[in-house]
Amino acid sequence: MQDMIKLYMAPMEGPTGYVFRNAFNEVFGGIDRYFTPFVTGLNLGDKEKRDICPKNNAGMDVVTQILTRRTDEFLSVANFIHDEYGYERININLGCPSGTVVSRNRGAGFLAIPDELDRFLYEIFEKSPIKISLKTRIGVESTDEWDRLLSIYEKYPLDELIIHPRLRTDFYKNEIKTETFKKACEISKHSLCYNGDINTTEDFKRVTDEFTNIDAVMIGRGLLKNPFLIEEIRHSVDESAPLTPPDERDKKVKDFLRLLEKNYLASMPGGEKNTLAKLKELWVYLGEGRTDFKRALKEIKKARYLDEYHAAMSTVVIR
Ligand SMILES: Cc1cc2nc3c(=O)[nH]c(=O)nc-3n(C[C@H](O)[C@H](O)[C@H](O)COP(=O)(O)O)c2cc1C
Fold first, then answer.
1. Which of 6, 101, 252, 315 could, after both became Cys, cross-link 32 (CB 3.0–4.6 A)?
2. CATH architecture of 2-237
């Protein structure tokens, strides 16, 4: 069973736009499906179009994620990406915990009004030109909410159900609610994807041993901390899957970072300053728990120009 499990990259507003996805795919690869950070509104903006258009996502299976509670917005975007871009699926964000999103009953805030969520799903499934998957938390404030939410999800022909087993009030911390996720495994007829806190091959093994009927796992921060995680997982399942030798890991990550830098510089307004901000954001993850390059991280954080950043980066060896 394990070797059949698909590996997805989680959508992460900020780090995982198309420049990142392309560089990751070119240097590390191994991802079965990527999800874009969420888009909003009736019509896509230029930045959103750049992020999701097929020309900027060649060679990857990419699913657009939308954050909305409005049928007209959903249909407008679903029709557009289907008609203009030829996409066959779309994903709905039912997990974003941010205050401004939740206060408008969007993202995880939509889970607080299950009757409306049910009505919304009924309407969009009537009219959507493409397959719909959901990425959901298990409730807003209490795991007691999950039974009702799951019973709603079971009514519709979802493409897949991606579950991050935390409440909105957990944000991205606190323990994963394993028992609540298990209920979905027992009851759901949907293709299930587990998401949350997979940072090592051991985490992957624990999740796939415990939840034997999932079809996919989605990984977010774990890939930013360790971009070799996908190949490590694949190797742990099948010893013949390639693994980068330890003495080549540093070069590979630096090649990736240089490619990112080149492509950010070419694609972003604000050139050097915004490119540096993007790279620094990534280094926060790459440096997490790495006492060996604490000093270099400080220098990277302080860097005002790419020259200063390069000098700091050259003192780091990534293992
Ligand atoms: C910086 C950041 C941005 C995120 N942006 C999105 C987003 O746009 N859409 C979404 O569904 N989830 C978003 N998430 C949540 C992740 O997709 C994922 O569910 C979460 O990080 C838990 O998975 P992980 O433990 O593997 O990171 C974001 C998370 C982070 C840390």
1. 6
2. Alpha-Beta Barrel (3.20)
